[in-house]
Amino acid sequence: MRKRKYQFRMFGGLYLTTDGKTIPISSLVGKQLIALLTYLICNYKQSVSKEKIIDIFWPDSENPSNALKFAIHRLRKALGNVVGLPDVEMIVTTANGYQFNPAISVELDTEVFEKTVLEANSEENFELYRKAVDLYYGDFLEGVDIEWVLTDRGYYRSIFVQICNTLAGRYLQESKIEEAVDICERGLDADELDETLIHTYLISLLKAKRYNFAKSYFDAIKKIYKKKVGVPFESLAQGQSFSQLVARIAIEGDEQTIADTIESAMLPNSSSIAPMIVDNDVFNELCIYTMRNAERYHTKDYVVTVRIEAAREKRKRIMMQLLNILKVSLRKTDVVTRAGDSEICLLVRLSDESDVKILYSRIDSRLSESVGEANYTLTYAIKPLA
After folding, report:
1. For labelling, which of 84, 122, 162, 368 has a CA lying 20 to 30 Å from the CA of 235?
2. What's the pLDDT score for residue 374?
3. How far does CA 218 lie from the centroid of its chain?
């Protein structure tokens, strides 16, 4: 006689599929009984001694033998009351303990998951990795929080998150951005604090041009990390601020789109034609990229450092006026950053150094007209990026 086949799904709860019907056992049987049943199911190939079961479930009980006997009675009764469950004894008594009925053919999603991952690892087969991800419906025995379950849950979760990291990295390499976003979200549902997944997720969102959401997520995860881990997100292994991530994505793209990318990410609702005003991190990233590619694109780029010398109480006002002048004097492709309370750095592309001097003269003249007082000195220094 052919054995009846029971397919158990333990990811996301406990479900049984047999004869084409799926039964949500975890919602029909109490949590402690589910934990006991699942333990026997996971050890279906052998009998489990009473002593071992007691050690796991009733280590501090004054009368553990009676507690076990009563639990088995309740479990059998509860399973007998489940509508749609085949009329067959699941738990049988053995010489030294209990066993899931060996007359039943068992298939566990956890075993299929582990087997698929092992095959994927040995063959570096990304289709098998994806298959393993699709087997993971949620945490192992979700909602049951006893020690042996928590241990196994952490084990399966760590494997799942590792697979998600592997797939996300591969999707990014292949420019499958939406797939990378999706797999990161699935991994982060399992472990919201995995720093590699967080970093990959942010990069994926930026490459997908979902700038508003990326910035909101970055701000949220910073707060979560500070609260749950106790350290700023930027201090971790990936160690980049949001602006640095934006610069990285920009410089990995086409050179002509850098300014647009940064502006869209940092000022997602802006339609400005003014120069980009960024922080020092982004400015330095762009300078490195520009210098690296100057020969390739035959461009002439310069860093111009403009310095204001004035009394402290007047310097701030003059600095703000200078920034306003730069907004109307420079192009959208130019970049501006404040290097301190008295210096501003510009990254500009011009024909030669004489054009830089012309630009400075224009800025100096407009600032003089705006300030209307001879109570400051404006100086500049030019550094070619080559």
Report:
1. 162
2. 65
3. 10
* Residue appearing with tokens 């990026």: 385
Cα 287 to Cα 292: distance, rounded to the nearest angstrom:
8
Which of the pair, 386 or 52, is modelled with greater confidence? 52
Q: What confidence score (pLDDT) does residue 285 get?
A: 76
Q: Which residue bears the tokens 């085949």?
A: 86
**pLDDT score of 235 more than 60:** no
pLDDT digits (tens, 9 = 90+) for 344-376: 999 988 888 888 889 999 999 999 888 876 688
138: left (phi over 0), alpha (psi -120 to 50) or beta: left
Residue with tokens 């979200």: 185
Instruction: Name 362's Cβ contacts closer than 8 Å, sequence gap at least 6.
Output: 329
pTM of the model: 0.69
- Taking only Cα atoms into account, the Rg of the chain, rounded to an integer number of angstroms, comes to 32
335 close to 278: Cβ distance less than 8 angstroms = yes
User: Is the per-residue pLDDT at 266 higher than 70?
Assistant: no
Q: Give Cβ neighbours of residue 12 (< 8 Å, ≥ 6 apart).
A: 137, 138, 139, 142
- Alpha carbon of 198 to those of 180, 194, 203, 250: distances in Å? 12, 6, 9, 19
Nearest-angstrom CA–CA distance, 77 and 86: 14
How large is the greatest C-alpha to C-alpha distance in the chain, in angstroms?
Answer: 104
Q: Which residues contact 384 (CB under 8 A, 6 or more apart)?
A: 300, 301, 302, 353
Q: How many residues does the chain have?
A: 386
- 203-224 pLDDT, tens digit per residue, is 899 888 888 888 888 888 888 8
Cβ neighbours for 229, distance < 8 A, ≥ 6 positions apart: 193
Phi, psi of 47 (to 5 degrees): -80, 140
According to DSSP, the residues that pair with 9 across neighbouring strands are 15
